[in-house]
Amino acid sequence: MNLKEMFLVLKYLGIFLICSLSSAQDCPTFSYPINGATDVPLDATLTWPEVLGYNGYLLSIGTTPMGNDILDRKPVGIDISYTPPLGFPDNTRLYATLSLVPFDGPPIACQEISFTTIQTTSAPSCSILIAPDNNASSVTIITDLEWAYAPGANGYKLSMGTTPNGTDLVDNLDVQNVLSFNPPEDLPQNSSIYVRIVPYNDIGTATSCPEEVFTTSFALYVCDPYVNENTGELVYRAPQINLPNIVGICSDELPYTITTDDDADGFRWYLTNSGSEESLISQSRSVDISIPGRYRFEAYNTITTDSGIIECTSSKLIDIVASEAATITAIDVVNFINGKTITISAIGDGQYEYALDNRDGPYQDIPIFNNIPHGPHIAYVRDKNGCGITERSVDRDIVSNDFPAFFTPNGDGINDYWQFVPPPENFESVIDLIFIFNQYGGLLKQINPNDKGWDGTFNNKVLPESDYWFRASFLNRQEIIGHFSLKR
User: Fold this and answer.
1) Using CA atoms, how far apart are residues 206 and 154, in angstroms rounded to an integer?
2) Which residues, if any, are the signal sequence (predicted)?
3) Which of 217, 233, 257 is the C-terminal boundary of a domain?
């Protein structure tokens, strides 16, 4: 076996070992909490670094090693965090395990960590309504109530009435450790409903919790859809909202105008970032968005009834998300005999998809491309919200101009050796050996691309200033011949 054949064998053996160990090395370590952490908050968010090339994660949490009595292999998609909706139990040692979900094959279990939660020493703080929102109007009389988790709570008491501080609908009911309540009977129509939610735990009960209020619509059937007896078509009294739940805009487009094409008698737009307080910002089809955030859109039709004119209202929460064009930070290439794997790394405030060689796609969500033919390629990263496409060359071939044009072996520590120094781009070709000759074709030096280089001597004798020639041989292409200068 000659030197070139041995180099090839060692190269592909290394690639095989890297690939065989990749799944174990891919396993992420929890960023928070760290293994063995103590006094972890009850509303803590578990986080871990993103691992590319997988279909998502499974998360298990238990009170015993490898246990899952709190969370049993819950799929969390491609999210890299998890917040327990009802919090963690206090003063408890918990065990958490992540599993990677490949696109094909069984999940890969990663190393388990343990942490201990903080001990509760005080009563919980108050909660707020999430649905219906505080001060919401035209709420259906069969609505469910939902409220936010209060850290440290292990139960909630609920009061509802038709007057301030009233309890005629629900009187201080202990609903236990849940975050929603389905009233056993329909709520009164066209009424103000006052709600107070009081969290509690083993230490005590929250104090001075605010009362919130919403207004119900007239009886449900008034705004219910009905079937037209002549045409048999379903007719909707309340408007049908077609706006998406998430609207992506470009950061450089703010302020941004959103206009609805929905058919309705009237419209209202609210800024509702806090969830408990809303600000009316428009009563027309359009609204000017100055900041990203959460907004609520209402569309209503007015209907005349025996009880007067009422509004049949439809409502939707809309998240306005700002995006920007991506920045490609790196492109990694692994060459194999029959092709190569290309991995694109990009950052930015947006949602991105990836393509090779064609600006128009097809695009994919995963930035990894396998079995790509050898040759030059171009990578494209596109923002899903239409905020731009970024492109960058994946690789190119080495040319004679990539080799140094001169060197100065005078012992000053600067440019004392002549050697090929790879530019930052990826290359299709792999240099095997470089041969250096004098003007008459005499071989002076044979260097490996990983060596320090040639110091301008032959048989320990310093050679004079002159032009010299080089010939670079490759493992996968024709040779390159060029020349350079020795200066002293």
Assistant:
1) 12
2) 1-24
3) 217
Least confident of 40-44, 197-201, 272-276, 364-368: 272-276
Nearest 5°: phi and psi at 11? -60, -50
Q: In what order do the strands lie in the sheet with 155-161?
A: 170-176, 155-161, 192-200, 211-215
Q: Do residues 136 and 73 make contact, with C-beta atoms less than 8 angstroms apart? A: no
Q: Write the CATH number for 472.
A: 2.60.40
pTM above 0.90, yes or no: no
69: left (phi over 0), alpha (psi -120 to 50) or beta: alpha
Question: Which alpha helices (DSSP H) does 158-239 contain, by range?
Answer: 220-223
Give the span between the Cα atoms of 30 and 34, in whole angstroms. Answer: 6
Grouping H, G, I as helix, E, B as strand and the rest as coil, residue 10 is helix
The alpha-carbon radius of gyration of the chain (Å, integer) is: 34
Find residue 379's DSSP bridge partners. Answer: 356, 392
Q: Is residue 350 part of a domain?
A: yes
Distances (CA, A) of 177 to 82, 83, 293, 316, 389: 19, 16, 30, 28, 48
Q: Give percent helix, percent strand, percent coil of the chain, each to the nearest 5.
A: 5, 45, 50
Give the SS3 label for residue 70: coil
Question: Could you tell me the CA-to-CA distances from 301 to 226, 241, 265, 304, 338 in Å, in that order?
Answer: 15, 12, 5, 10, 64
Q: What is the mean pLDDT of residues 403-425?
A: 89
Instruction: Establish if 42 belongs to a structural domain.
Output: yes
Range of the domain at 318: 222-323
What phi and psi, each to the nearest 5 degrees, are found at residue 465? -60, 135
Alpha carbon 320 to its chain's center: 16
Q: In angstroms, rounded to a whole number, what is the distance separating the alpha carbons of residues 321 and 427?
A: 38
Comparison of pLDDT for 356 and 311, the residue scoring more? 356
Number of domains comprising the chain = 5
Residue 183 has a CB neighbour count (10 Å cut-off) of: 16
Q: Rounded to an integer, what distance in angstroms lies between the CA atom of residue 113 and that of residue 286?
A: 50
Short-list 141, 322, 303, CA closest to 217:
141
- pLDDT given at position 306: 61
* CATH (domain of 291): 2.60.40.10
| Same domain assignment for residues 425 and 453 | yes
